[in-house]
Amino acid sequence: MAVMLSRSSRQLCNVSLCTFALHKWRCYSAQGQIPSQVLDSFRAVVGNDNVSTGTSVRAQHGRDESVHSCRPPDAVLWPKCVEEVSELTRICHRHNIPIIPFGTGTGLEGGVVAMNGGVCFDLLKMDKILNLHEEDFDVTVEPGVTRTALNRYLRDSGLWFPVDPGADASLCGMAATSASGTNAVRYGTMRENVLNLEVVLSDGSVIHTAGKGRRARKTSAGYNLTNLFVGSEGTLGIITKTTLRLYGIPETIVSAVCSFPSVQAAVDSTVQILQCGIPIARIEFLDDVMIDACNRYSKLTYPVTPTLFLEFHGSECSLEEQVTATEEITKSNGGSEFSWARDQEMRNQLWKARHNAWYAALALRPGCQGYATDVCVPISKLPQIVMETKKDLEKHTLTGPIAGHVGDGNFHCLMVFNSADLEEVQRVHEFTKRLARRALALDGTCTGEHGVGLGKKQLLQEEVGHTGLKVMEKIKTVLDPQNLMNPGKIV
Amino acid sequence: MAVMLSRSSRQLCNVSLCTFALHKWRCYSAQGQIPSQVLDSFRAVVGNDNVSTGTSVRAQHGRDESVHSCRPPDAVLWPKCVEEVSELTRICHRHNIPIIPFGTGTGLEGGVVAMNGGVCFDLLKMDKILNLHEEDFDVTVEPGVTRTALNRYLRDSGLWFPVDPGADASLCGMAATSASGTNAVRYGTMRENVLNLEVVLSDGSVIHTAGKGRRARKTSAGYNLTNLFVGSEGTLGIITKTTLRLYGIPETIVSAVCSFPSVQAAVDSTVQILQCGIPIARIEFLDDVMIDACNRYSKLTYPVTPTLFLEFHGSECSLEEQVTATEEITKSNGGSEFSWARDQEMRNQLWKARHNAWYAALALRPGCQGYATDVCVPISKLPQIVMETKKDLEKHTLTGPIAGHVGDGNFHCLMVFNSADLEEVQRVHEFTKRLARRALALDGTCTGEHGVGLGKKQLLQEEVGHTGLKVMEKIKTVLDPQNLMNPGKIV
């Protein structure tokens, strides 16, 4: 697991450089210093104020919200437009310097850790919202625009962008990591909601994956480059614009909480709700440990039993239908009466509590570290995998409250452990591997939404097989022959 | 346009071979003969009965339903399982022989035309429906399974597969060409509905794009190979299995026909219906020429004015809501009362008429040839492009009834012309280019669903630009360095 890898010394990094050399990828000088004339070239492009080699700035950019230890880049640059990104990339290309794109740093698999040193492109100064087409339900944004900033901007238009991974991530970062989250069961993930990307390739050239300015709802014009770059975690290029599908804000929204006598009852209800074709907007599972943690952290009073947080979107009439059908199912599985959150304030409170599950879990053991696992299985396998995982946690005396987007078959164990206790770290490490392999054995994936990053490279190989991984490596090699784009991630 | 290209002589083919050589792709011998010992190797794999070099069999496999002239392969092979496909591919790889995968031959851009000779793999004998998971709404099918065969098989399960391009195409062929059609506005295209693919690569190796047997609803495990192969038109590999999302058959379905005083009124209604977020299942536009042709061909009596064919899916209650809201919109645009098709037989009759639009158009000028154009634009651009296109057809005295999946911004002119009249052929050629460029100028695509094939390679370059095309070429080169997989298509 990550936590082990991240403790590797500079020496280990050199070993990894060696491996890349075997792949015929030339690598950045191991000394980790950017020559001063190169720094001058960067300054000539973005100005003095937008180049930093300061220790604390570099440290801020060398890690995300995961357990992967900080590996700072050698410099941080703040380009302000695509032309600057392109020019900086050309300089890096000439001098063989790795590039790590950086948005809000809210990733969970170490995607921004500077494994081979190099420069970090902090893209938050590129924060324009461009070309809102209300009548076509699409908008184009630069990498500095976050999910909530876009939705604030859209508020008066009656439109919104529903993909919601919890964190207030940059939308281009969400495209790069194929983010999803609580609304994906109804509105899809970034894969279904990105219409076009502007990407700077490793040689500084700029492409538009669907052609410049294009925003047709569907196309069959050549290879689907858009979805090749969505989820490529910065390893194929730097996303500098994304064109997104938007949706009308639903006429009516209601949220509800339902408690269950057992995990099986909650998960069975989820499966049945989906099988009945109820177009539920969110269906989030929290196990007893998780709801207890949320109660304490967010000052709530829900019963400490397996729980579903639900949300329904639609017209008054269709909502009534959805709710009635859902209640029938939950009751038949022994679920409680619904506890309602009808107005915006109540709903916000509910979903804030859900999104704060991570911090609530951490608060269970103050001073400890957290690691959010992430697996996804076909929905019919959910009861089995959740039950087995609960037993596994218990058997190995680990703290890992379970929360998840069960409507997609996706869930997380929010592992909380004492990183100074190497024996416990080892137990967490083995548990997360077992969990991922349990998902693989049930036709699932080792990551539904957090990505591969640093932590899941071995599991990726197990998931897609040797020939599948070989194809990914070939694509990486042909688009980034010098292995400059976020090296050491995915492949 | 296709019709011109397709008349090119063997000499032109050699020119094209030459071009490929410049791209460092080795090519099949220009003499177009497969050595007898190679044919013997094929026979050793699939048996004598599954290898044919007969003229008529080859001719049947050298064209699709488009205007592209037949270019027969040098042999046709019928593998019966993925192992045979792999073994045959290895033989072709050793002997540098192009491979063209063939499903039902219902493509519309010349995707199966054997530009460089080679062998056709007719995949229809691989016709097993595998691993139906009713509880997870997914199924895996071999390439010989067509859309209607799958839906017949599913009938008693209460499930269906909605993507419906009209033709009874092979589902793996639909994946290869990124097909969509009438239901895409609600259920998405093949891109959104393929969960996994088994693909034989040019060296005979077999990959599963999402890992063998995997069928999680979402994944962020590495590059999205599934959507790289969806729409790759056989140029990156041979799809030998596809795992598809299924849907519950809607509780209630009703179809309706609505006539409008003008194109603008019909298209404005479409745009407003979508903008109101009505989850309409089908919304098909037919212009006056098209509805007249359909009336004649399918013995119907609809008013000869611009028309929408609509379909609503849902519960009784939600249907009523959808219909009421839609009627309000159509009436405010001067639309007629709805003419209803409520029972299955009536609905079948209606949609059969829509799907027979192609034959209805051809029947307008018996003995003439047809070419279905295909463009897609953001929905707000629809009124403008349809109006301009109608004027263009009129100005150049061309027969081109318009029909389209306007809910996606996608429509076709079904061009009917005398292929012996070279001046008319030229006018059609110029018109279709103008139409595609009109779509490009309005932020759209030169092909919403028919693909690039042979006919739109130049337009693809205009659409995605030089750097975009270069990326596609690189991917092609690295996955198929000998240019054996359906050469001459897309890139």
Architecture overview:
Two copies of one chain form a homodimer. Chain A is built from 18 helices and 19 strands. In chain A, helix 16 packs antiparallel against helix 17. Chain A starts with a helix and ends in a 12-residue tail after the last helix. In chain A, the strands form four sheets. In chain A, strands 12, 13, 14, 15, 16, 17, 18 and 19 form an eight-stranded antiparallel sheet that branches. In chain A, strands 5-6-10-8-9 form a five-stranded antiparallel sheet. Chain A has a four-stranded mixed sheet with strand order 1-2-4-3. The longest helix of chain A has 23 residues. The N terminus of chain A is likely disordered. Chain A folds into three domains: 127 residues, Uridine Diphospho-n-acetylenolpyruvylglucosamine Reductase, domain 2 (2-Layer Sandwich); 120 residues, Uridine Diphospho-n-acetylenolpyruvylglucosamine Reductase, domain 3; 190 residues, FAD-linked oxidases, C-terminal domain (Vanillyl-alcohol Oxidase, Chain A, domain 3, 3-Layer(aba) Sandwich). By secondary structure, the first copy, chain A, is of the alpha+beta class. In chain A, strand 18 and strand 19 form a beta hairpin. Chains A and B meet through strand 9, helix 10, strand 11, helix 13 and helix 18 of A and strand 9, helix 10, strand 11, helix 11 and helix 13 of B.
In CATH, what is the homologous superfamily of the largest domain in chain A? FAD-linked oxidases, C-terminal domain
Computed structural class of chain A: alpha+beta
Q: Using only CA atoms, what is the Rg of chain A?
A: 23 Å
Q: Mean pLDDT score of chain A, rounded?
A: 92
